[in-house]
Amino acid sequence: MEKRSLSGGRFFLVTVLNVVITIFEFIGGLLSGSLSLLSDAFHNCGDALSIVLSYAAHRIGSRQQTRTNTYGYRRAEILAALLNALVLVVICVILAVEAVRRLFHPEPVQGTVMLLVAVVSFVANLLSTILLNHGAKHNLNIRATYLHLLSDALASVGVIIGALMITLWHVNWVDPVITILVGSYIAWESWPIIKQALGILMEASPKLNYEAIARDIEQLPEVEGVHHLHAWQIDENNIVFSVHVNMDNLPLARIEPVYRQIETLLCRKYNVNHVTIQAECHRGEHESLFYDQNDWRHE
Q: In this structure, is the dihedral angle defined by the CA atoms of residues 222, 224, 228 and 232, taken in order, positive or negative?
């Protein structure tokens, strides 16, 4: 309970810090005419939204299961991650289009103002990562936000380098180039999040060695076959698994220990959290490992 309160407090401080950075960078970007600074401001604005959504989703996901949500509310964090990543990609595309326009029609940039704002932004982003460093060791959600903020600090380094080049050599084309590079990096980092979130929401199977799982289950003396295997994820950490197993016509008192053996195997070796097993004698014994809707039509 204390850890959750501490994490919530740190989330709040980092959110406030990111809002302040965003406002500061927007003003600095407008005053200096720096597109890369404005892109960093948009990125930090997205981060502030991301932190709020992530924390809210984390709190919602911590709720207990109900009659209407028997698997709980853990998908809230997946929806938040997908929304955050999509917003970042849209922002990157818009800024990239503007950056290309500025490459062909350069605009003056005040390197000194750009440098000052970029340095302050870097220090603030670094402070944000330090604030979340402790929580990142104990919570996956906080760790993801921590790594995101760390990438912001690295992006600020790129803006600082660009500001130095503009101040020293007056090469204004560096500003839109940095915008494109930073935007491409953010979009590249966002894609795996989008892909994973969509996979979970579409009930895609987690990456497990299903043939090895079937072999391990079939090695139990009482089990003669395995079919109609299903696996999906509630979130990135919780795997739900169902399987039909062929067994001799045994009394329930002898079947239950086999169930426990299968559950223990799946939990310890394959990190499966929730297992549903259906025992059958001969039904489905010639069917495929994975469910085929045509199988039951020919029974």
A: positive
| Residue 221: how many other CB atoms lie within 10 Å | 7
Write the pLDDT tens digit of every residue in 88-121. 788 788 878 888 888 888 778 888 888 898 898 8
Amino acid 191: pLDDT: 87
Neighbours of 251 (CB within 10 A): 7
Please state the three-class secondary structure of 7-45 as a single string: HHHHHHHHHHHHHHHHHHHHHHHHHHCCHHHHHHHHHHH
In whole angstroms, give the CA distance from residue 112 to residue 18.
22
Report the pLDDT value the prediction gives residue 8, as an integer from 0 to 100. 63
> d(Cα 78, Cα 200) in Å, to the nearest integer?
8
Chain center to CA of 218: 35
What separation in angstroms does the CA of 73 have from each of 100, 143, 191, 290?
Answer: 42, 20, 24, 28
